[in-house]
Amino acid sequence: MIATERIVQTPQRIDFHIHSAASAKTRDANKESLSKCTVSNIPLLVERLTAKDTGVTMCAITDHDIFDYEMYKALKAHEGEGTLACVLPGVEFTVSFDDANSSDKQGSPTVVHIVVIFDDNEEKLHTLNGHIVGEDGKPAYDKGDAFSADKFTKIIREIELDSVLIGHEKSAGQEGAHDISSLGVEGAKEAILTEFVDAIELRSKHKEINIKRLIATYPHGGVPFVFGTDCHDWEQYPLIDSTFKGREDEVAFSSVKCLPSFRGLVMAITDQSRIKAGDCSFFSAAKSRVETIKLHITGSPIEIPLSPGINAIIGDNSIGKSLLAHKLTGYAWLDESNADDLKKGYDAYCEKEGFAIGTQIPDSHVFRFDNQSKVRKTFEELQDGECDDYFEEYYQQHVDAEGYKSKLRGFFRSCLNALQKKIEFNDYIDSLLSIEVEVGKAPEITSTTITSLPRKLNVTEVEEVVSDTQIEIGHINELIETHERVISKMDPRALEALKNASSELSVFLGYALGLERARRIENIKIEAVCEAAKDVKAELGAKRTDEENQQAEYLGQITQASKQIAKAVLMKAAVKNRVFDPGIGKVKKATTPMRGFLFVSELSEERLDVELCKELLLAAFNKSSVDRIVAGIEGDTSMTSKEFIARISNANPSASSCFGFVLKKIDAAIDAKLFERKKITNDSIGVDSSPSPGLYSKIYFDLIADADNPGIYIIDQPEDQISQTSIKKNVLRAFRRMAQQRQVLLITHNPQFVVNLDVDNVIAMLRADNGHIMVQSGALEYECDDYNMLNVVAETVEGGADVVRKRLKRYGSDED
Amino acid sequence: MSSENASNGTVQMKIEMILDKGKVKIKGRGGFSVDLKSPVLKVSELYNAVFTDITQPTNIIVTASNDVLQSREAKPIFENIKTIVDNAIEEINSGLIELAESENNQDDDENEEPIGDEVNDPLAEFRANPGSLLSDENNDGA
Asked: Which of A382, A536, A619, B25 has fewest C-beta within 10 Å?
């Protein structure tokens, strides 16, 4: 059967274990209920299969050791009725295994039931039963009431139909009769590991604890588990029969992500992520998705359905895969550096090919678009300790790069300051060698000079005495007048005394006035002399003699010598040695643990020590000079500025600017050498080690997969920069998780990203025979009259055939 | 020349100028002399003879022998050298005190904050992913 839908929109609900009346002919003769499971009652089965609460979409009647072709055809005729989309042919074989390792069987044969689902290749189906039964119409058992393992294998091979083998496990790990687990733990594992069975079938109704115990019995990841009803009474379907005890609504079905076809089943069986227990969704219900891509190629409209999961765009180089992605996003995610050129190129190509894209993904629907160069750049940046903007937000703590740089700059300033003081002192002492001072008898001055002038006499103080005396005389006179009546009553000598006092003060006043007058006259003379002397002094100053100049010079050199000596002493006192060690040592890293990773912000240098500082000195000095410079910083040195300048490499700054020059060079070296570096690691790698390139790709895609931001993820060739091993080991799982959260558009040339990733939709852009672009799309299992998608992948993607072959092994061996 | 520490921490130093073979010299210290006939003092010689070891405030007493004081040529040389030494040491002493004070201040300034602690962005985690701290590890779901 060929599926009409190109991609999986809803999961299949399967039941590959339904018995019919044919089973009564072989093993279940005693089950009366089977007698009603006849061709004529197929409508009843269909009704039950497609009932509202059942809704089976894929099924098979698998009778014990017999294939009833008519029964199969009768049911097959109902395909498309209700939910029933695909009916596959099948048989439940009874197989006897020798020497099972089960301890309680003591080497006796163990019989198990294996449900085999065949490809519905009509040509070979009508002869299928002939390989199982003998001429008498009974199963051609070769080992009691069972087929030997060899006979069973031979029958399967001779039927020449692709098949899926499902081991029956109705007792859910309790080693019930005919269960795979009855082979014993080792035997069951062997059956799976040797791929003798492709899946284990559990009966639809089981206690969950038993199922978990059973699953734990088998090799991890070795086998998918599916539910089957093992129904022996169609009237009771989906129950096994009328003896069923329990609640009907507890019957479980498996949800399978595949197209309703044998090939779809094969693809699901070969990727366990496609099979889930119960009613499950395989895709996110995100609204930010695109349903279809509408194209016009040379005028013909084409509509490509897109899966809500992973859509892989494959095709030849330069066919237009990247163009398609960029056109869909309106060129919003092109690299700015060459966006204009790319746009022009893309537009010209579309024009030339008659290729037009009618779908536009709004920018708000895009979570992230990693174009080809961006993926490469992101990994390179991660390797180099730089950080893509996307990851920046994960670094909540940062190494204090500026703090460390500032400390180092301060250290070098301090070191060079110490050396500078020593060098300046040495230079100064050198300059003193040539300075000589005359210390003999000072030159004598013989010419006339005005050394001092008379000062004017104080008249004011005398005026005050005169004034006070006049007031006192006035007071006495006033006393006599005011108190005349009283005084007249006194002894006449009282009035006489007052008059005498006034008279004496008048005499005193005469002396005071005399002094005042004399001083005024003297001051007039002094003023005249000073006025005259001022002119003379100016005249003498203008005519300063050589003797005076010689004496001034002489005294000046004595003073200068004192200052020079003082300066030398003070310069020496200011000299200090500096240990050439910044005292920082190991740099602390800043680590933010998030989502199982450690986001490490570290300095580009792990240690800021003497060796690094010597290296930084090389930014300014010759290699041979570094030790001499360090010695000069740490201890006594005879270095002068001349030597210092000579040791500077490739420059010859002046003495006044040489230290500034050196500091500038070292500052630049610090900036170039010390910077924040970011890396992503985890506990097992540790913060001091760096992940391998492969692990970086895992980290990158894990983070993308776990991101909560909604929207479509578009990535152009994720395989760049990642080894095949790393893709298989690290990256595919992340993409699978991603597909559960968001729609993914993936452009790739790598078959692993198509077949092993088990993408939900393949869009192959190919060149048709007429030279035009053509697009073929569909799920991996999709096949139609024009193409089958696995073949397209095998032929289009380099190495694709190998990967398809490895995945399908026995199933695809007869494919062309 | 002799020196000793005074109780106040000031170093006491005495130098005596003497007359030797027509030259004024400092007793006990070679490398310095001023010729009476050509009374020229080399500053570097005086520095080396008297000042090279001075690192803290010092009181220098400059004296002269009788023959210096009684010589018409030697006496002014002595007086000038004394002036140079006296003025120099005055400037040196005040300079050393200033230097000591500035060094003390510098020591205080050098008590910096330690570096190397992470620079935290308190809002970064929230900005990075508001729900991240609550989310479980994703499983494969198969």
From this structure: A536
